[in-house]
Design brief:
This protein is mainly beta. It has one domain. The protein contains 1 helix and 8 strands; from the N terminus they run βαβββββββ. Strands 1, 2, 3, 4, 5, 6, 7 and 8 form an 8-stranded antiparallel beta sheet that branches. A hairpin with a 5-residue loop joins strand 2 and strand 3. The chain is elongated and about 50 Å long. The N terminus and C terminus are likely disordered.
């Protein structure tokens, strides 16, 4: 006989994520890379962004996952271009995203300039722009 025990509080389901699909085909000039390279550099983002938002009981977004199925980032100049796959990101808004609150962002994958060394990427930003 299979028996399942349920505590006095019952079973609580994890919050459901809101799914958003955003097709991207965006290009913009990069001031930073243009200054570094001495010639105009353009950055392009192409592909599909799949966003999952998880909200708290007040309706504020507390977590976000951005999956980048097949998305590419391309750097272009008169001398040529190179592309690489975009990394998924995980956003933690703590108690909920509001103007002026802090967000911690983590990127999935290895972020390193040397094959023998790897490090996880994480940065935080505060406050959120209006």
């Amino acid at each position: 006989m299979l028996r399942a025990g349920i505590g006095a509080g019952g079973i609580t389901a994890a919050p459901r994520g809101e799914q958003i699909h955003i097709p991207l085909d965006d290009s913009f000039p990069s001031e930073f890379w243009t200054d570094q390279c001495g010639l105009p550099v353009t950055i392009s983002n192409t592909g599909d962004l799949h966003v999952t938002l998880v909200r708290n009981s007040d309706g504020l977004v507390v977590r976000e996952t951005d999956r980048t199925g097949g998305m590419k980032v391309t750097f272009s100049s008169a001398n040529g271009s190179f592309s690489f796959p975009s990394a998924p990101s995980h956003w933690d808004y703590g108690d909920g995203a509001e103007l002026g609150s802090t967000v911690v962002v983590s990127f999935t994958g290895l972020q390193s300039s040397r094959a023998s060394t790897s490090s996880a990427s994480r940065w935080s930003s505060s406050p959120m722009a209006s």
